[in-house]
Specification:
The protein is α+β, with helices and mostly antiparallel strands and 300 residues long. Among the domains are: 135 residues, Sandwich (Immunoglobulin-like); 56 residues, SH3 type barrels. Helices cover 38% and strands 29% of the residues. It contains 4 helices and 15 strands. The radius of gyration is 37 Å and the shape is flat.
Amino acid sequence: MKKAGCGSLLLGAIVFLILFVWVVNSCSEKQQQAQRTELQRRSSLTPEQRQVEEKATTESKAKKEETIKPKVYDEGETVRVGYTTYAVWRSWWSNQLSENPLLNQRPNAMYLFVELTVRNNDKKARMVSPFTLIDDSGAEYEASSNGWAVEGSIGLFDSLNPSVSKQGFVIFDVPQNRNYRLKLSGGYWSLQDAFVQLTPKLSRDDAIRVEQERRDEQTKAEMERQAEQRRQVEKERQEAIEAAKWRTWTNSTGTHKTEAKFGGMAFGKVKLIKRDGSTVQVPLEKLSDEDREWIANRQK
């Protein structure tokens, strides 16, 4: 019985091996056939057709890479990723962790402080996802474990209730002579990521000063925009008042005059509104030079 059982197992193993080899060879033959078919198809194309096809393939690949590539934001922009909203306000370098000598620890390289706000947009409490720095070479840096000593630091185990925000710091211990992007995650179970390009200043005071200057410039630009808008509204109002005035219109030969209001111009004809309410359409070229100049000034 044992010999028969062993024989059955051996026979089954042989059959399985034969089937496995057959499947592998079959797949390989199909792949080779597909490759031969593709080579034959490409060889039948004209040079112009190959060029068009290669261009379409390149554009499709570039579009796909652009779709997959996460967007890079600037400091000060609001970033929503998954169920979390971030806003990185500023970043700066420091060679000390805290002004308290009992808590201060020297960095291995240089401390990079990142001040930001995190908001939980989900309907249940969520842990704050870990933050990562990425330099131009693709190297990744974790937040410093010494960050707990900084009041207001955002730690690995911080949790936020729904619709709750927290503003604080994330501290990294990294080389100073590199460019860094802060990687933001949509959550522990999210596949979404975003990046913020950091522009760290030499100190927090410098970062705040630069941020204030940026806001002042934005405020100034907005005030100038509003002032220009008011000037444009006033200009249009004055033009409307001027256009509503009665004036004497003269034809190009000076032989005929009429008192009327300017009612607009379309398709090369000027609409004049007389005192009795009637209107007349006069070709622009039939009016005097003075009248044409007056109309041109209204339309600037």
